[in-house]
Design goal:
Layout lengths: L28 H9 L12 H17 L7 E6 L1 H12 L5 E5 L2 H11 L8 E4 L16 E5 L1 E2 L4 E2 L11 E5 L16 E4 L11 E6 L1 H12 L10 H8 L10 H17 L1 H21 L4 E3 L11 E6 L5 H10 L15 E5 L6 H17 L1
Parallel strand pairs: 2-3, 2-4, 4-7, 7-8
Antiparallel strand pairs: 1-9, 5-6, 8-9, 10-11, 11-12
């Protein structure tokens, strides 16, 4: 990066909290302080003891309430994050062949994982250019439809709906969408995410909301005798989750912060509150970009624009790395675009923990910096 100019933002343009990262995302200071107060009563405790299992139970019950899960749906937890869940799905959810909607870095990675699995047929890939999205196509030859609710790398969101007239299950990567974008549980069979985005926690954990159809698929694949590593065995994860624990030792801080975030969002009004909060923040950014002389929304169609991860292109003579660097020097963090996309771009998270007032100050801060470049 070239040398940064020295630009000092006036105090009124500096957000109260300058964390705008798309993951890991802003963790509430209140939750961190409460974790510290637990002292030796929680951290360092066996994850199979009641002190920790009660936290897992609260997470599972809280998510059932937060997403209004119908009877028969279960909340399953495992260690390793969404990346590990891709491997687990390749072993434990896909029977023979899957269809993948690919429209960014992370949707492509799941497709590549399945493509390399020797026990599965080559997946069907339906691709769209970054900044756009494809739609699923009913295909009786596939048994899993792999959708992505929100492509973190590009700031594109996609509707979650079952393809009509087919038997396959719907498996949704919801990592940067869960908790910030509305979803109908009847439209998915496994809705999985890591908690370091809208759920304001740390990584290293995956959570999957599974329908009865999804659970029966896990049990059916496990009964075939297919070799499945225990770490990636969804049947093992399901059995342990029913005991309010994980098969492997989890990050206890991650569990605690997730539980506190769920409690906070339920107290505020649940998913409806969280969705409105993210929409308010993202609308401020999109409106600013649309009226700017040097910025514009990267995603052209308004209906495809993410309310949780906003991507904004800058004109060539306004280097995004310089803008981001000056903002960082002023305590405004992690506004850089996704590196592999390779665009002159800012990317800003609008998860529920982020105050819309801070988003508005961010837009004014960017204007201030650009005027002085």
């Amino acid at each position: 990066m070239p040398d940064l100019p020295t630009i000092h933002l006036p105090a009124e343009l500096i957000p109260a909290d300058g964390r705008f990262g798309s993951g890991p995302s802003k963790v509430r200071t209140e939750s961190l302080l409460e974790l510290g107060v637990t002292g030796s009563s929680y951290m360092g405790t066996s994850h199979r003891k009641e002190r920790v299992r009660s936290v897992v139970a609260a997470i599972r019950e809280g998510l059932r309430a937060f997403f209004s899960l119908p009877d028969g749906y279960e909340v399953v937890l495992g260690v390793g994050g969404a990346t590990a869940f891709w491997d687990a799905a390749a072993f434990g959810l896909i029977e023979r062949r899957s269809q993948h909607l690919v429209f960014g870095e992370f949707s492509a990675k799941f497709a590549a994982t399945v493509d390399g699995a020797p026990h599965l047929e080559k997946p069907e890939r339906i691709e769209a250019a970054p900044g756009t999205r494809p739609d699923p196509v009913p295909n009786p030859d596939v048994d899993v439809y792999a959708l992505t609710h929100n492509e973190t790398s590009t700031g594109v969101t996609a509707p979650i709906a079952r393809p009509r007239g087919v038997e396959g299950i719907v498996v949704v990567d919801a990592t940067s969408g869960a908790g910030a974008i509305a979803v109908d549980p009847s439209q998915f069979d496994a809705y999985y995410f890591s908690p370091q985005k809208a759920f304001g926690s740390e990584g290293g954990l995956w959570v999957a909301l599974c329908s009865p159809f999804g659970i029966s698929r896990i049990e059916r694949v496990a009964a075939t005798g297919r070799w499945i590593p225990r770490f990636l065995d969804l049947r093992t994860a399901l059995d342990n989750s029913r005991k309010d624990q994980t098969y492997n030792t989890p990050g206890l801080a991650t569990l605690y912060l997730l539980r506190k975030q769920i409690d906070m969002m339920l107290d505020q009004g649940g998913l409806d509150w969280a969705v409105k909060r993210s929409l308010r923040s993202s609308s401020i950014l999109y409106d600013w970009a649309e009226h700017s002389e040097y910025a514009s929304p990267f995603v052209a169609r308004p209906e495809d624009r993410s309310p949780s991860v906003v991507t904004v292109d800058l004109v060539d003579d306004v280097p995004a790395d310089i803008v981001e660097g000056v903002l960082r020097d002023n305590g405004i963090l992690d506004t850089f675009g996704y590196r592999k996309l390779g665009r002159n771009q800012l990317r800003v998270a609008c998860f529920p923990n982020i105050d819309p007032t801070d988003i508005e100050k961010l837009t004014r801060a960017v204007d201030f910096v650009v005027e002085r470049l």
